[in-house]
Amino acid sequence: MEVTEKLEEVVRIWTKQIRQVLVENEQIRREADDVGPSAELEHWKTRMSSFNSLLDEINSSRVKKIISILQAARSKALKQWKELDGSITIAANEAKDNVRYLYTVDKFFGPLANASPVMMEHIPSLMNTIWLIYCTSPYYNTSEHMTSLFLKITNQMINTCKTYLCEG
Q1: Where is each Dynein heavy chain tail domain found (predicted)?
Q2: What's the confidence (pLDDT) of residue 168?
Q3: Which string of DSSP letters, residue by residue, matches 15-78?
Q4: Are the CB atoms for 117 and 166 separated by under 8 Å?
């Protein structure tokens, strides 16, 4: 087997592994019914870390050398590689952006969890911040993401009320 063929096989294996990571990240998350909004931030932080690690690996000198050898050999294996590289970059940017935006509402999560049921004082600011995220985020402004966040905020409010009633 010639060097180019061996390197193409390596890239095919990487491509398969990267596709698996992308597929897993697109699957519906399974979460407890009563999970609070901090879980949303944690999810995106974990995703950001995963994709940043993957990007670091893809941008390593070892991978760059292999890709440049295959480019010189005009390998057809690079077409899929370039598509995946772009998909990973988009996923990493989405996660980073979502973490940045969710940190703006994170300051409300503590008071929401520790307040008495008279948490109404926090709600207008929280809703305004979520509205700003919806209006400005290039990634998080989907109905799926917003529904998930509102569901978790509602869960937190219910848990806070339950705790208040049980302790009162």
Answers
A1: 5-166
A2: 60
A3: HHHHHHHHHHHHSPPP--TT--THHHHHHHHHHHHHHHHHHHHHTSHHHHHHHHHHHHTT-TTH
A4: no
